[in-house]
Task: structure prediction
Amino acid sequence: MPTKLAALFSGGKDSTYALWWGLCQGFEVACLLSVFVESPESWMFHYPNLHVVELQAEAIGTPLLKIWSMGEKERELEDLKRGMAEAVERYGVEGVVSGALASEYQRCRIDRLCEELGLMHLSPLWHKDMRSLLREFVEEGFEAIITSVSAYGMDEKWLGRGIDHQCVEDLIKLNRRYGIHLGGEGGEFETLVLDAPFFRKRVVIERCRRVWRRDSGYLLVEKAYLAEKTSSQTS
Result:
């Protein structure tokens, strides 16, 4: 079992929760590995608001390793492999932890890259019950917002909505009615974490705007900063 990990990190709920799991299990997370894609059509990686991960990394207090990619199918895997190899060289990592939920496409490809590099892939959220996982996410004190939507039943009003208990219940209703994946694994929605139990500071969005086209859209964060956490937020 590895002791030093790189966390595949997009800044969304799943990768952040998986990172927290690794810390709680006693692993040393030596770096965050984020792939910055040029295309919104990436099959593997988040696209909206990736620039905020720099603030998140600072809030966590962990080095951020940024890898640039055009986001082209399959070729982006070589970019990820390059980043993982750099994490091994620079930080001596022995494994990676990811927030993979249910996508066999993503899970198998990360597994393959890890095997080629002699690394272990830990995916603690894999096939977990999403109702329980979302409720735990809220109860453990994570703060996140929805930053993109592309699914039946999700209109422009969902952009910027905080993930709280009512939001979880509304997602469950949409799952029953339209069959959307509760974790957004099918691209139904993406998220951005603003605070977490292990963040030293919290991310504050100062300026943002909604971009909406027909039946889908995203929230573009134009300006954000880190703020000190109150005693209630750190307890």
